[in-house]
């Protein structure tokens, strides 16, 4: 057991090192100059001496491997550096933006669950009925519509015409509704069909048939056998789509001018703010890996057979 944990930690360390190095190298070959963005050479007259002085101050005049080594040294000291534009610590800015993105993610997940779970269950229970046909049309349209277009439609209808909700920004829970709907509807269109197919597959398992034959109440069979077993492929697919969820959050945050991590990283990319970009890449990789580990741990609770198999192998 300890050997397995140690091996997993070593793999994670090598993964983070490789990812950080590749992203660091890619940043250096992307067109654009952070020094010119900082000095705003397009708006203010700047001499070449000032540009070189700023480049030396930021350490951008050093070779690539030296720059990466200095960044790693700071990382070991739990220091991700300072933003080129704001001169503030990257970690401080990250902790300021993170709650906004977590709220948006939670809101979109609530919308997705409230739509996909009931509609997927009804589609599985009443196959080929009108509710199943409706879910198919909803999934087809929802998966075909881009998130930014759906967001613009919601802004036009709820904010401009009806004037019920604020179109963008933050300040109260009402600012979360339109972004959450935009991201949640796009996700639910995919997960409705996944819930349906997973439930149908689970309903055909032998242990479900055996539970029905023993006279267990149908509601109990569905909840503790069929539905519980169907969660494993759903959670697996959800963990694999975390990257898509984060990408959708970036688009929605920019569209609604929502001050989360998505808008933060887009602004940093436009300004060539390397410390923020590198820090964001590291944060997201840690987040995605952590989600995958939690998903693997949840398998043992959802399906005790997996936990028993792990004990036998160890």
Automatic annotation (TrEMBL):
SUPFAM superfamilies (alphabetical): MetI-like
Subcellular localization, as worded in the UniProt entry: Cell membrane
Record's keyword annotation contains Cell division: no
Keyword Ion transport appears in the UniProt entry: yes
Occurrences of domain ABC transmembrane type-1 (ranges): 98-295
Main location: membrane
Superkingdom of origin organism: Bacteria
Transmembrane region(s): 12-30, 100-125, 137-160, 172-192, 231-256, 276-295
PANTHER family: DIPEPTIDE TRANSPORT SYSTEM PERMEASE PROTEIN DPPB-RELATED
Similarity comment text for this entry: Belongs to the binding-protein-dependent transport system permease family. OppBC subfamily.
Subunit structure, as described in the record: The complex is composed of two ATP-binding proteins (NikD and NikE), two transmembrane proteins (NikB and NikC) and a solute-binding protein (NikA).
Protein name: Nickel import system permease protein NikB
Species this protein is from: Paenibacillus albidus
Lineage: Bacteria, Bacillati, Bacillota, Bacilli, Bacillales
């Amino acid at each position: 057991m300890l050997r397995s944990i140690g091996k997993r930690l070593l793999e994670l360390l090598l993964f983070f090192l490789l990812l950080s190095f590749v992203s660091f190298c890619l940043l250096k070959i992307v067109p654009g100059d952070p020094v010119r963005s900082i000095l705003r050479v397009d708006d203010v007259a700047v001499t070449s001496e000032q540009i070189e002085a700023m480049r030396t101050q930021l350490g951008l005049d050093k070779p690539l491997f030296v720059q990466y080594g200095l960044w790693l040294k700071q990382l070991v000291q739990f220091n991700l550096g300072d933003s080129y534009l704001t001169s503030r610590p990257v970690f401080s800015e990250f902790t300021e933006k993170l709650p906004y993105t977590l709220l948006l993610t939670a809101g979109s997940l609530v919308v997705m669950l409230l739509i996909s779970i009931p509609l997927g269950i009804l589609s599985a229970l009443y196959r080929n009925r009108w509710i199943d046909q409706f879910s198919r049309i909803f999934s087809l349209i929802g998966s075909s519509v881009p998130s930014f277009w759906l967001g613009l439609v919601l802004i036009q209808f709820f904010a401009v015409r009806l004037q019920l909700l604020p179109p963008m920004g933050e300040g109260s829970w009402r600012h979360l509704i339109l972004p959450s709907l935009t991201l949640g509807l796009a996700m639910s269109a995919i997960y409705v069909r996944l819930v349906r197919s997973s439930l149908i597959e689970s309903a055909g398992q032998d242990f479900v048939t055996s539970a029905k034959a023993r006279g267990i109440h149908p509601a109990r069979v569905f909840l503790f056998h069929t539905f519980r077993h169907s969660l494993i492929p759903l959670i697996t697919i959800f963990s694999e789509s975390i990257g898509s969820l984060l990408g959708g959050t970036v688009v929605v945050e920019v569209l609604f001018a929502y001050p989360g991590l998505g808008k933060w990283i887009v602004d940093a990319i436009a300004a060539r703010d390397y410390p923020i970009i590198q820090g964001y890449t590291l944060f997201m990789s840690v987040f995605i890996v952590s989600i995958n580990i939690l998903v693997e741990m949840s398998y043992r609770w959802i399906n005790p057979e997996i936990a028993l198999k792990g004990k036998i192998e160890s």
